[in-house]
Amino acid sequence: MIHFIDGQFLAKDSINVSIDDRGYYFGDGVYEVVKVYDGELYTAEEHIERLFQSASKVKMTVPYSEQQLIDIAKELVKVNGIVTGHIYMQVTRGVAARVHQFPNPGTAPVVTAYAVHNPRPMKTIENGVRTIIVDDIRWLRCDIKSLNLLGNVLAKQEAYEAGCAEAIFVRDGIVTEGSSSNMFGIKDGVVYTHPASNLILNGITRRVVLKLCEQNGITVKEETFSPDEALEMDEFFMTSTTAEITPVIMIDGKAIGSGEPGPITKKLQEAFTRQIPVSVVG
Ligand code: PMP
Prior knowledge:
By secondary structure, this protein is α+β, with helices and mostly antiparallel strands. The chain has helices at 22-26, 44-57, 66-79, 122-127, 150-161, 204-215, 227-231, 263-274, and strands at 2-5, 8-11, 29-37, 40-41, 85-92, 110-117, 129-135, 166-171, 174-178, 182-187, 190-193, 220-221, 235-240, 244-251, 254-255.
């Protein structure tokens, strides 16, 4: 596969990254994942814009324009022949001797990107997944898509060890989000999700779903709910760029609603599929 690093498109095996990269030492960087459907980037502008926002929040500059990053992503799709998959993009604060404070202002950020083939996860989209609840031990800037993902990594591992696909974070008695997804509960026809704040990543798929709810006459309340309330929801689902809208059918061993993907979730999935450029499902 051909990767992008600092202005060049190179074969993966020929790329060397410095051991002094601050991404490696500190997780000092930001990233994005952009989905590719039918060889086309999906909601790329929104993702690139969020990359710039994440960078700005950690006082980093991105040495390209939004259009240049989109062009790089498009080139990766083309040269790697991606039909369904995604682009990963990362910017770190650059290469410098290991001290915590920022390196000299002249230090160039390191920009890398690659493309992968990745089919839509139709099995889990159709059948749903099981989840567990874990303590949200992360920092207080979860709105930043930072490379620092240890809290997320530990949570996802705990879920996998419990035979589940995702971990649902709870902070101070409130469901925040998943380890790599946003969480939605449905009760009496109303969709509930944690408001966009410093405690969650405002997912691009989350924003798409909020819009789809509006377009389809489904009431949304961006209001918090507790784990006990989550267990009493009629339906539950999670969203992310790669998981799309995935039904959550079980939380901590308890079935949600009927224990199967619910009707409003399915309606939203259909609406979602209608607005992505896929000629062939899967
Ligand atoms: N929250 C977290 C913690 C995530 O890692 C992700 C995946 N990027 C999301 C939410 C969903 O965001 P998006 O829909 O933009 O992929």
